[in-house]
Amino acid sequence: MNTINIGLFGFGTVGQGIYKVIGRAANAHAEIKRICVRNLSKPRTVEVPAGLLTDNENDILDDPSINLIVEVVDNAEASYRIVTSALKRGVPVVSGNKAMIARHLPELIELQRRYDTALLYDASSCGSIPVIRNLEEYYDNDLLLEVKGILNGSSNYILSRVFDHNEEYAAALERAQQLGFAESDPSFDIEGFDSLFKLIIITVHALGVYVSPEQIFTYGIATINSHDIRHAREKRMKIKLVAQVVKVSDERFTMFVMPEFVSPSKYIYSVDDEYNGVVIRGECYDRQFMFGKGAGALPTASSILSDVMARRHGYRYEYKKMGYMNRPAYSTDVVLRVYLRYTGRDYLDGIPFLNICEMHLSEDFNYVMGDIRLSDLLACREQLSDPRVFLANIPRFFLELDE
Amino acid sequence: MNTINIGLFGFGTVGQGIYKVIGRAANAHAEIKRICVRNLSKPRTVEVPAGLLTDNENDILDDPSINLIVEVVDNAEASYRIVTSALKRGVPVVSGNKAMIARHLPELIELQRRYDTALLYDASSCGSIPVIRNLEEYYDNDLLLEVKGILNGSSNYILSRVFDHNEEYAAALERAQQLGFAESDPSFDIEGFDSLFKLIIITVHALGVYVSPEQIFTYGIATINSHDIRHAREKRMKIKLVAQVVKVSDERFTMFVMPEFVSPSKYIYSVDDEYNGVVIRGECYDRQFMFGKGAGALPTASSILSDVMARRHGYRYEYKKMGYMNRPAYSTDVVLRVYLRYTGRDYLDGIPFLNICEMHLSEDFNYVMGDIRLSDLLACREQLSDPRVFLANIPRFFLELDE
What we know:
The structure is a homodimer. Chain A is an alpha/beta fold.
């Protein structure tokens, strides 16, 4: 077990957090040898020795003394270029870039195999909560049935301000941006894509199957309004943005990201503010719940540190479940019960509900509750993305499986 | 990765659970080759093929085709004999016997090193929650500050019936026994020893230090009465049996098992019934919470399955933190604030409180709240074990560190 000499790409808040955390971890036997940034002259709160910073990627990639790349740049293309270049040189990488990983995971797995090296990315899903590692190692068996949770801290913070603190949605979003929980362009978080990318990564380690982003129904919270919020409150529920992958039979599983009506008896009901919470359900052990800080520079940095130390012991993901017998197949042929709030008399015409069990029409608030195939929701994506429409899942049916 | 041929010791409820779970896990590539029981003619609910059962330990230990021993006998001496015999033959072992492991861990670690083999025991602490593995691997760094939780499902079930369902303590205990959550002799659970043994194992993997049982202050819930319960309720708190190990400085840590007044804002407040919940606190990531079924044959069996599958990949605990620089030292020189309910005018005389901040005297209910050194509680163990006395921790002081 040698010293880990790190080449760090990216020195924003997470990169600076990593610099601090590695400095505190004497038993990591790790040292940051070089830091590659886009702009050398940008002011930074963390001071580093002269000569540590460079704006030339090759100063790291070509340095034979560097035996681990840590990559936390905030640009998916740059991330892809750096990670694949490093892997092709046989240098292991720790990355936190969920969008890049979720889009390119099959290729990244293949590169790890071909060049006999490792890519670790526990920080990419749920910040400091060790979800990926546990799915890969501890839940490495046939018992796993479902992984479901709140995977995005920013949108959860906003919903939490709305439901627990009676703030208006717009004010909550603004506050989240001020606190740094949401980006200046918050669409990645609030439209569900951040949760989606994490769910894709989780599914590879949960069931051994990769499903690409465009195949998965993803709906965010951007269009929620005060009627939806009041409606949920009257039923003593909260609306949460939930990502889930669920085995619906021995042969099939489904997955999606959607706002959900959550009753107080559910574990995820109490996951508030910027926290993440994941429920892992399996035969025999029923439900386990993991909860922690899902966002923030230091929680993410602590997760990166765990991956760095795992490399000291040569740890790599084996993607064991990809070699399982009888892996379940991805399916959208399942029926969900949903709440759909809409505007306009003819809006529902193109939406193939199997049945409607509740309908409300008034001057300013129309909604239906009914059953619909997930495949039909996918097909109606365009129509559902109308800014005057809001859709949410009502756990039921196969989701009777739900906690 | 070869097939795992298991020799199973013990075929009570947990052993039978393992038999069922392994049968369901096709991708485990594991098979139970032989089962050693004490009494061949005892009736069992699970039927097994003729010839699988034996009452001769050597039928397993001497069988060269068996490459993993799983040991779940309910007797600590037999467990010690089986585990050490197997390790000395170089055969890896999965065990769930927390009492045996907690008492003999230094020797068991040495045997694993000397005979280059492995002993896994994630099932020994918190049933199905992967606490040990995560402390060993994921929290393998200098950031960890505290592990605190409800580690015993039986006592928690009883307290839960009392606080959430208004049952009398005696009725709740009886119900727990009927449901199989508590043994016919429940002292192991309700006097805190089960939690203690788990805490000892957790501490080895959390901080790399072994502390033997007799050095650790352990107080259970056996003497709780209706006054204590009403007192807690009036303050809108629950009393829970809590085990904790806490770094009190860079150089020192402390640990103990004690009933604790828990306020609704704490994660462990909502850990009810037979569930376990563990809070892991560290620099940077703050608090993480893991929650799941802590007791029961199938949850324990699912945890054993995780250890069995880990052996397919050659996994072993490296006890990495035992080799850390600057390991903290165990100390009882910390001050706790406690609640002490007692009987008899002179009872308090021998108890060296540093100060008393509240005192209540009435015909049938006397208590004090005050500050006392943990070392003095240890020294007064005898006096505190009076059946008319009940002691509970009130988190404060260094436990301001608490969530």
